[in-house]
Amino acid sequence: MTKLIPWRSLLFLPANNQKFIDKAHTREADGYILDLEDSIPMAHKEATRANLIAAAKVVAKKGADTLVRINASLRLAIRDLEAVVDPQICAIIIPKVSSAAHIQLIAQSIDEIEQEKQMPQGYTRLIAQIEHVDAMSKLDEIATSSPRLMAMTMGTEDLSLSIGMEPTTEALIGPCQQLIMACRRANITPMGFPASIADFSDPTQFQVAAELANKIGFSGAPCVHPMQVNILNQVFMPTEEQVKQANELIQSFQQQYEQGTGATNFANKMIDLPVVQRAENLLKRLNR
């Protein structure tokens, strides 16, 4: 199974927009999501599938990962999978996930396709996109549904519509925290932010949402505009000062722990194992 480093930023690209595909490698995202779902009209889906692997090679030419969002309809999803399960594609985003069985059905299909294409079993990873209130009560089942599942994210527009609320931070913070906790229990990655993904008109507002996402436990996020990429990359990467403090904190704790002290003082704060582990987790982000 491929070893993937969590992404700070994943930029959605319509998989049939050659102009966007050609420029993608200049956007500095950690990964690019070639979208076969909402951004592709029905009449164009077949031609887009046929060109997708060529597009994946273009967007990945500076080393970024390539993902694909398939269609929600099972009939279309199977056609998508047959076209896009390939060594060029490291992960597939499944939209409108409704249950663990939904993930398992897709995973079983990928098992067969990887075998037919003589790919390593388990190579293609999955990301579940939660977009309906009915799925919220099944987050733990979904999060543990398949070894292929590496992350969950939230379709904030569709989820908000199904709940009957506006996609504002105040409304979305609760659902986002539920998703994050389910991911942590299952040891998979939570991705997203508590705001509308469709609104890219205000970079300052987007940065506030991204910073909040980082604080509440998200590890990175998908986005729809190149302007958002740099913000996500900065927010989800520790600053030099944070790295310096984390290293000093860990060193101070280790020195005093060896002398028999389990809770110490550092920078006028009590430091014990949970605080040290938080600092260690911060330093792990440098290995992206």
Oligomer type: single chain
C-alpha termini separation: 18 Å
The sequence of SSEs as H and E is EHEHEHEHEHHEHHEHEHHEEH
Q: Indicate the structural class.
A: alpha/beta
Q: What does this entry look like structurally?
A:
With 288 residues, the chain is α/β, with parallel strands linked by helices. It folds into two domains: 9-235, TIM Barrel, CATH 3.20.20.60; 240-287, no CATH class. It has twelve helices and ten strands. It has helices spanning 18-23, 45-59, 74-84, 100-116, 133-136, 139-143, 156-163, 169-186, 203-216, 226-235, 240-258, 273-284; strands spanning 9-14, 31-35, 65-69, 91-94, 125-130, 149-154, 189-191, 221-223, 264-266, 269-271. The strands form two sheets. It has an eight-stranded parallel beta sheet with strand order 7-6-5-4-3-2-1-8. A two-stranded antiparallel sheet has the order 9-10. Helix 2 (45-59) runs parallel beside helix 3, helix 9 (203-216) runs parallel beside helix 10 (226-235) and helix 11 packs across helix 12 (273-284). The two termini are 18 Å apart. The mean pLDDT is 91.
Summarize the structure.
The protein folds into two domains: 9-235, TIM Barrel, CATH 3.20.20.60; 240-287, no CATH class. Helix content is 48%, strand content 15%.
Task: Describe the SSE topology.
Layout: E1 9-14, H1 18-23, E2 31-35, H2 45-59, E3 65-69, H3 74-84, E4 91-94, H4 100-116, E5 125-130, H5 133-136, H6 139-143, E6 149-154, H7 156-163, H8 169-186, E7 189-191, H9 203-216, E8 221-223, H10 226-235, H11 240-258, E9 264-266, E10 269-271, H12 273-284
Parallel strand pairs: 1-2, 1-8, 2-3, 3-4, 4-5, 5-6, 6-7
Antiparallel strand pairs: 9-10
